[in-house]
Amino acid sequence: MKNKVKELLEQVEKFTSENLDCVEEFRIKMLGKKGEITQLFEDFKTFTAEQKREIGKDLNELKIKTLEKINSFKELLGKSQEKTTNIFDMTLPANNEPVGSRHPISIMKNKIIDIFKRLGYTIAEGPEIEDDWHVFSALNFPPEHPARDMQDTFFIESNPDILLRTHTSSIQVRAMEQTKPPIRIICPGRVFRNEAISARAHCIFHQVEGLYIDENVSFADLKQTLLYFAQEMFGKDTQIRLRPSYFPFTEPSAEMDVSCKICGGKGCNICKGTGWLEIMGCGMVDPNVLESCKIDSKKYTGFAFGMGVERMAMLKWQIRDLRLYFENDIRFLRQFGTVV
Ligand code: PHE
Questions:
Q1: pLDDT in tens, 229-279
Q2: 154 with 286, same domain?
Q3: How far apart are CA 169 and CA 315, in angstroms?
Q4: How remote is the CA of residue 307 from the centroid of ligand 1, in Å?
């Protein structure tokens, strides 16, 4: 027995391995159910007390050394295996992440904003849930004006003073109340009107409005600004025309048309044979509005304009149905590029 223990101890000390399977094989050979050391322990049971005393210590030591050796190899080889599985191959091509595209409304809104930014306009925003003052009263809407009618406006909790804004002009009122002229802002936002949904109307849509207030601002400034905008948006050869119109908050007021670029002004079904497309309302800010916002209307004048983003996108990309913007059909959305 003594010799056997010595021999096995030598084997253990010499043992070396480069893979985990060999280590496991060695463990089974030594300490498995029928392993050599296990067998020695079986034989040990039959020894006399004196024999046990003589050999017991060596036998125990052999078992401990074997376990230590096996465990240290397991740990070492386990770690290096982990390392090889964690190594990156930097030369592999990257995974192809699918790229999304912006919604056409966002693309158009950003295009509009970019053009006015170049003219020194800054962006102003405001709340979608508004009060009567900012949407109507401060903008010179007479109390009985039809736009306040339940037909057009969504009121909140049957309180006629709280409502969803029907235009982004409310942002301009807030800006005029909060800042002193000169004011030069562009106001993008979502607006709400109680209309039946169809190809040409929706109860939720987007507007971008602009406001410029300073000393000596004239209608000629308005016209030149809008001509610049139209040519940047629709091309250098675009022409504009201003037709007299009416808004409670501007005087004089106008509608702006751009020459139809689809037929080049000759007349087609998009421009209904007129050669012109209506794109926005505009005018000189009514002095009553300036006074409502505590701006001296003798010293300052200004102009304002407002356009629908959906309509601009329809004209730019010849989209024929407003409902397409809200359906989120991927085939529709993909057509507008991958500008993310
Ligand atoms: N607020 C108007 C609308 O919603 C647009 C507009 C803005 C017209 C500014 C004139 C001046 O229709």
A1: 999 999 999 999 999 999 999 999 999 999 988 888 888 887 888 999 999
A2: yes
A3: 23
A4: 7
Q: Within this chain, do residues 66 and 110 fall inside the same structural domain, yes or no?
A: no
Cβ distance 61 to 40 under 8 Å? Answer: no
Report the separation in Å between the CA atom of 91 and the middle of ligand 1, taken as the mean of its atom positions: 57
Which of these ranges, 66-80, 147-161, 284-298, has the smallest mean pLDDT? 147-161
183: left (phi over 0), alpha (psi -120 to 50) or beta: beta
Q: What is the distance in A from the centroid of ligand 1 to the CA of 248?
A: 9
Report the separation in Å between the CA atom of 222 and the middle of ligand 1, taken as the mean of its atom positions: 14
Domain match, 58 and 153 both: no
Residue from 195, 249, 285 whose mutation best tests the ligand 1 pocket (most atoms within 8 A of CB): 249
- Could you tell me if residue 93 is inside a domain? no
Confidence class for position 221, pLDDT limits 50, 70, 90 = very high
Do 164 and 254 reside in the same domain of the chain?
yes
Q: Are 35 and 171 found together in one domain?
A: no
Cis bond leading into 182, ω under 30°?
A: yes
Q: Is the pLDDT of residue 151 over 90?
A: no
Judge if 51 and 149 occupy the same domain. Answer: no
Q: Name which residue sits closest to atom 3 of ligand 1, judged by CA.
A: 167
- pLDDT category at 150 given cuts 50, 70, 90 is low
- Give the residue, by CA position, lying nearest to ligand 1 atom 2: 306
Q: Name every protein residue with a CB atom under 6 angstroms from any ligand 1 atom.
A: 167, 169, 209, 247, 250, 281-283, 304-306
Same domain, 41 and 149: no
- Quick check: 87 pLDDT over 60? yes
**Atom nearest to 191 CA in ligand 1:** 4
Full residue range of the structural domain in which residue 119 is found: 104-336
Residue 328, CA distances (Å) to 93, 115, 233, 318, 332 in order: 32, 27, 25, 17, 7
Q: Are residues 162 and 275 in the same domain?
A: yes
